[in-house]
Amino acid sequence: MRAKAVEETQAGSLVLLCLAAWAIPGLGHLWQGRRAKGLIFLVVLPLMFAIGLAIQGRLFPFELSDPLVGLAAIADLGIGLPYFIANALGAGAGDVRAVTYEYGNAFVMTAGLLNLLVVIDAYDIALGRK
Amino acid sequence: MRSHFLLLTLFAFFVSLVFALLAKDTPGEQMRFGGMMFVGFLGAAVVLGWLMYPFPF
Fold first, then answer.
1. Under DSSP, is residue A93 helix (H, G, I), strand (E, B) or coil?
2. Cβ pair B18:A117 closer than 8 A
3. CA distance A83 to A28
4. In terms of C-beta density within 10 A (0-12 exposed, 13-18 middle, 19 or more buried), how is residue A99 classed?
5. Under an 8 A CB cutoff, do B14 and A44 touch?
6. Contact A20, A115 (CB under 8 A)
7. Cα(first)–Cα(last) distance of chain A, in Å?
8. Which of B4, B7, B22 sits opposite A117 (nearest CB)?
9. Alpha-helical segments (H) within chain A
10. Quick one: how many helices (H) and strands (E) in chain B?
11. Which residues of chain B have pLDDT under 50?
12. pLDDT tens digit string along A34-73?
């Protein structure tokens, strides 16, 4: 009974850790004492996302009728809190006529996907695999 | 910032940095892995750019 409760607590804190690591890039590593890595992720990933938006990258809508747009939207969402801040500020409209439009999309989507890898890394550290 | 090469270099730097930190644990290994990946990105871009040069579109 007690072992089951401990397992549930551990599972709960793992979920919380992953959510925090997703919401704020690098927080999962900072939480577990990996300060250098955490700080670098905290700076680099939101910076990459911001550069993407600054050069006319687009935050794609969740359109299930167009699978590629839907997948791009999931990649965008991977960055966590900065996605919602950018949305609230009205950034990410994108300008398809801009020379840097495709580069902007690559920056924004890659920042999100890299953050998902960072979340998985934080999860592995929490499980003692790394 | 409209230079494609500058944007490509910046992109390669960010991605190499994050992958090096994720894949390797010691600073020496991270520098080596990240450096190789960065050079690989730039080299591949230059080679592919020249390969695509003859295409009309």
1. strand
2. yes
3. 18
4. middle
5. yes
6. no
7. 30
8. B22
9. 2-23, 27-31, 35-54, 67-77, 81-88, 101-126
10. 2, 0
11. none
12. 999 999 999 999 999 999 999 999 999 988 888 899 999 9
Who among A51, A100, A121 is closest to B2 (CB)?
A: A100
In whole angstroms, give the CA distance from residue A39 to residue A22.
14
Are B11 and A107 a contacting pair at CB < 8 A? yes
Residue A91's contacts (CB-CB under 8 Å, 6 or more residues apart) are: A53, A59
CA A78 to chain centroid, in Å, comes to 3
Residues of A in contact with B31 (CB under 8 A): none
Please give the Cα distance from A105 to A60 (Å, whole number): 9
Please tell me the distance in Å from A103's CA to the nearest CA on chain B: 7
Query: What is the rounded average pLDDT of the residues A18-45?
Result: 95
CB contact under 8 A, A44 and B18: yes
CB contact under 8 A, A99 and B25: no
Cβ proximity of A115 and A22 under 8 Å: yes
- Mutation to test the A interface, candidates B9, B16, B21, most A Cβ within 10 Å: B21
With beta carbons less than 8 A apart as the criterion, state whether A118 and B22 touch: yes
Measured between beta carbons, the chain A residues lying within 8 angstroms of B22 are: 117-118, 121
- Residue that has been written with the tokens 């998985």 in this structure: A120
